[in-house]
Amino acid sequence: MALMSGTDVAREISEQTAKRAHEFERRTGRKPCLAAVLVGEDPASVTYVKMKRNRSAKAGIESRLVQLPAETTTGELVAEITRLSQDAGVDGILLQHPVPGHIDERAAFEAIAPGKDVDGVTMHSFAAMAFSEPGSASATPGGIMRLLDAYQVDLKGKHAVVVGRSPILGKPVAMLLLARDATVTICHSKTENLDEIVRTADVVVAAVGRPKFITAVKPGAVVIDAGYNEGNVGDVDFDQLAETASLITPVPGGVGPMTIALLLEQTVSAAARRADLVDVGEVVG
């Protein structure tokens, strides 16, 4: 078993992003700008947004915070996101999710202009990703793919099992794996014989939101734990799988840092596209 350190890979991506952000500022006179929208004061969401803003500052990216009260309506949130979409000084928009239950989250996501959807949450971004067209990948799935690349995991012809079907994680990572010539099975809460299917996988992506849900894989499998539950516990039983898997991501320190790294990288890329600076927008790796 070997650990897949998202922290180490994310650091390399962030260093490259900072260089690109600096070049963008040198040539345009301003920093790339990421606007984060936070509805309510959920402690976990507040922490995540603060972390993303700190990472933005370190990467030379301007960070704006739009904090709205928990009682904000869908219409009010859509109006705020539309305003940011029309703001020439904003390059990327991040809506911290989940939003309060009374808000139509999908409607809010769809208010983000496609060119500013650096978190890859809109239907436009999903379609572009599924058809291998230019655009921003969903940040966590994109981060997973970069992590697999960094550890030279050959996906061609391999059986990848994705456990989870959310529109911002399970479904998009399945599309990205398929684009790399993996044979993909998507499992979910109603899948019969789930354990048996998981044991057939060469690559397992756990994104189900249940602590220690995956307890067995076939020997030599690559295990990506995209879950994060209370107590710093992922969706796989790390202790159970550590001796069976050939590669496995820790929680924390695996997928999480990659998500933020991709978000910031895609913000600089979006800024470069808007400014028509193709060379600044290029991504290495």
Describe what you observe in this structure.
The two termini are 25 Å apart. The mean pLDDT is 95. The protein has helices spanning 6-28, 43-58, 74-86, 105-110, 123-130, 139-150, 170-179, 194-198, 238-241, 255-274, 278-281, and strands at 2-3, 33-39, 62-68, 92-95, 159-163, 183-187, 203-206, 222-225, 247-248. By secondary structure, the protein is α/β, with parallel strands linked by helices. The protein is built from eleven helices and nine strands. Helix 1 packs parallel to helix 10 (255-274).
Strand order of the largest sheet: 1-9-8-7-5-6
**Going by CATH, what is the homologous superfamily of the largest domain?**
NAD(P)-binding Rossmann-like Domain
In CATH, the architecture of the largest domain is 3-Layer(aba) Sandwich
Share of helix among residues?
40-55%
Give the gist of this structure.
The protein is α/β, with parallel strands linked by helices. It contains 11 helices and 9 strands. Strands 1-9-8-7-5-6 form a 6-stranded parallel β-sheet. A 3-stranded parallel β-sheet has the order 3-2-4, with helices on both faces.
List the helices and strands and how they pair.
Elements: E1 2-3, H1 6-28, E2 33-39, H2 43-58, E3 62-68, H3 74-86, E4 92-95, H4 105-110, H5 123-130, H6 139-150, E5 159-163, H7 170-179, E6 183-187, H8 194-198, E7 203-206, E8 222-225, H9 238-241, E9 247-248, H10 255-274, H11 278-281
Parallel strand pairs: 1-9, 2-3, 2-4, 5-6, 5-7, 7-8, 8-9
Helix pairs in contact: 1-10, 6-7, 6-10
